[in-house]
From TrEMBL:
Pfam families registered for this protein in UniProt: DUF1878
Keywords attached to this entry: Coiled coil
Name of the protein in its database record: DUF1878 family protein
Record-linked InterPro entries: DUF1878, YhaI-like_sf
TM ranges: none
Amino acid sequence: MKEGKVLKDLEKRLEQLEYNQMLLLEMVNPEKYPFNMLIIRECISKQEVQELHKLCERLTEMYEEQKAQGLVIFTELLTLFAGQLNYKLDVVETVQALYRQNLHKALMKTFLDIIKKQ
């Protein structure tokens, strides 16, 4: 019986935390931290965020290498990004949020330019 009460209490506390998180999220300025807002809203874990940043770092290296070689079309990099992006995240929304929060700026700018042309 005591275990059931403990689990009920934990469940109530978790519900309260989720509610508080939702209220805090509404207080945050989405224009200043759109990527953070997206991560919280979509319940992306710390590990998943780290994986996303590693993906962006790898793609940025590829972007810089290709750019140095004189390439000007980077659609393949956007395709790689989309294919490896966490399934919980929308490609366009994620690119926009990263760009607006000044994360991986050059790569995201390139991706936005490609998206706008499509």
